[in-house]
Design brief:
single chain, 169 residues, alpha+beta, Aminopeptidase, 5 helices, globular
Length: 169
């Protein structure tokens, strides 16, 4: 198992995984990911904020990070944090606790970058996902109605998000 930055050569697979995740979301939830812009992913790759976890040379999952997320985290954005977004898992690797692997990686990544928190959000009140993130070490902080979603992907429009964090020691 290896975690590295995604490259432009990975873009086709990243979008394939996003489509699979979105199609799954559509079968279970009223809110689902929109079709993300190519420019968004290219910028994340160029800024070394798009990641991949590989198993046996295959991409098992992808995600993006940022150190700044003011529209979602509002006044808490000033806390030194790494924010994780858009985890998408290859169906061939489901059930392998990959979010727990991402958490282990994120603890080192956050510490190496002077951050004290690892944070995530999900749109809505998905009780199964809330429980799963709890098993992966996240504290559920509750829900927040977004005040300003301008510039965020479409699924955040007029959304209520569930917030999660891990406080590093």
């Amino acid at each position: 198992m290896r975690i590295n930055n995604s490259t432009k050569a990975d873009i086709k697979e990243i979008f394939r995984l996003y489509k699979i995740a979105t199609d799954f979301q559509k079968t279970r939830f009223t809110v689902h990911w929109p079709e993300f812009e190519l420019e968004l992913v290219e910028n994340e790759i160029n800024e070394k904020r798009q990641w991949k976890l590989e198993i046996d040379g295959r991409i098992a999952c992808v995600w993006a990070t940022t150190f700044d997320d003011p529209q979602i985290w509002e006044e808490r954005n000033s806390d030194p944090s790494v924010y994780i977004h858009r985890i998408a898992t290859n169906p061939d690797f489901r059930g392998q606790n990959l979010v727990a692997e991402i958490v282990n990686w994120a603890k080192d990544y956050a510490a190496n970058n002077g951050k004290r928190f690892i944070r995530m959000d999900t749109v809505g009140d998905n009780t199964k996902l809330i429980a799963y993130y709890g098993k992966c070490g996240f504290e559920y902080l509750g829900q927040l109605k977004l005040r300003n979603s301008e510039g965020l992907p479409a699924h955040y429009d007029n959304a209520t998000v569930s917030l999660f964090e891990i406080r590093l020691k």
